[in-house]
Design brief:
The protein is mainly α. It is 69% helix and 0% strand. The relative contact order is 0.11. Keywords: Membrane, Transmembrane, Transmembrane helix.
Length: 118
């Protein structure tokens, strides 16, 4: 199938956005690793990559292949949802780790040093 100049330029722009989104996704993936865990960076780069793919690349590619992008868009939306859930869980885990442990009150069977006998 021969593409016209407009379709060819849209296809190339879509491919360029795909490369940029791929690079951003790799940065997000590295930021999610246990060694370099940075929730904010991973969420920011991953979200930008998925939004670029959903909004720009898919709309440009829809000009040439309308039905191919339906599954891709669904998978990208699922990836964005998963990234959002992961970021929320990590923020909650980090917040819980920052809170000091509350001391448990001594029960009747425990003797507290310096306390008068019961």
């Amino acid at each position: 199938m021969k593409l016209g100049s407009l379709a060819a330029s849209m296809y190339l722009a879509s491919a360029a956005v795909g490369v940029i989104a791929g690079i951003l996704s790799l940065i997000a993936f590295r930021a999610m690793s246990p060694k370099h865990q940075n929730v904010e960076r991973a969420f920011r780069h991953g979200s930008i990559a998925m939004v670029l793919m959903l909004a720009v690349a898919n709309s440009l590619r829809a000009y040439t292949s309308q039905f191919e992008i339906l599954l891709e868009a669904a998978l990208q939306a699922l990836a964005l949802l998963t990234l959002n859930l992961w970021a929320r869980a990590e923020r909650a885990r980090q917040e819980a780790a920052r809170l000091p442990e509350t001391p448990h009150p001594a029960t009747n069977s425990e003797h507290v040093e310096g306390a008068p006998p019961a």
